[in-house]
Amino acid sequence: MIRKHFAGFAASALALAVSAQAFAGTVTTDGADIVVKTKGGLEVATTDKAFGFKIGGRLQADYSSFDGIYTRNGDSADAAYFRRAFLEISGVAFTDWAYTLNYDFSHNSGSSEDGYFDEASIAYNGFKPVSIKVGRFDPEFGLEKATSSKWVTAQERNAFYDVIDWANGHQNGMGIQASSTIGDSVYLSGGLFAKDNNDTDGDSNKQVNLRGVFAPLHEAGNVLHLGFNAARRDVSDSVIDTRFRSRLGMRGVETTGGNDAGTNGNRVVFAGANNTVAGSYDDDTALGLEAAWAMGPLSIQGEYMKRKLKADSSAFQDIEADGYYVQAAYTLTGESRGYKLGKFDAIKPENKQIGAWEVFYRYDSINVEDDNLVTASATRDVGDLEAKVHNLGVNWYVNEAVKISGVYVKANTENVYNASTTGVRTGDDSGDGFVFRAQYAF
Q1: Which region is the signal sequence (predicted)?
Q2: DSSP string, 114-134
Q3: Would 25 be classed as within a structural domain?
Q4: Which residue range is the domain that position 204 belongs to?
Q5: How many other C-beta atoms lie within 10 A of the C-beta of residue 57?
Q6: H-run or E-run covering 22
Q7: 3-41 pLDDT, tens digit each
Q8: For position 54, which CATH number holds?
Q9: Does residue 37 belong to any structural domain of this protein?
Q10: How many domains does the chain have?
């Protein structure tokens, strides 16, 4: 019911704004003059920039087909879903205060209990160059995560991000973060978060995140970017999901934005278990390195990440994982990827007739060590568990609002399968598929 009311309110507010703009006569203000922009959403601001707001959003409609390791029986399945359907409202008040409210109608962010908010935050920018933000938002961890989902190169971010989803996802918690730029080349951030999960005393699990970026070259088509990330969460005396798992680049195996593969979808589990008994583990840490280089239409980037879940009981062993990706992208029509300190941004087509065309390749690697597994299970063998994922795709930036994408994905695993029969390994350890996306961002 709340969701229906929110949707009705948003639609009514937008209709009112449009009708008012169409039928209003003289518009007056009791302060500075105002400027109204309609390119890329509706934006209204005073000329002194003390007050303003913007209404925007993004719609990403996906279709995918896949088989092998991506399904439990190995047969082909498909999925059609909204990856994201955001209504985004942001603004500035009294010069130094800012707010952001992003609601996800596809329900891939948030939950029915906590609201389907991708972000709901307030920031104070009066201590320039330091910004302090509070509310619900994703902790900072990684270059691909810092880059908006509208402008990441592949439809899905690298496969190892799934393994450390707690490190850069809000999990419906709340946080406070301070960030700052130093000159034109350094970006730093640090945050403290309370996740939506409690220990046996009812105390929320706490998490700390740190990120630092040094970019001596920081203009579109001329980028040199180096970064470091760290995250730690306290999970002692807590019932938590300790699974190290990944969709391996294929969101359609499990999603909430529409149809997915259902019970036949296989989100690969490398280690751990859901609802692990309280007192089993102590803390969870993640570390990451990031680097990127761009010259003209060519960009190369990569990240290396590690995760360690430390045991707090003699009945359990530590679980460790590391992974990386490397990606190369080239714009055939000559445009450069946009860049803002700490993240890549949009490609803006120069030719309004044919748009901008980009091709890319990304290689993902995951390695997991779980000594808790001493005998083979239905889907795992004893020993290190690995996955390699190849992503080959093309992006067509039709204009600054519309983007059409397609990617072919092939995954190979070692010591992990989708199924087996007693004593005989019959499951798949590889699979492939494709993903098609139509995106409109305003």
Answers
A1: 1-24
A2: TBSEEEEEEEEEEETTEEEEE
A3: no
A4: 50-441
A5: 19
A6: helix 2-23
A7: 444 444 444 444 444 444 444 455 666 667 888 988 888
A8: 2.40.160.10
A9: no
A10: 1
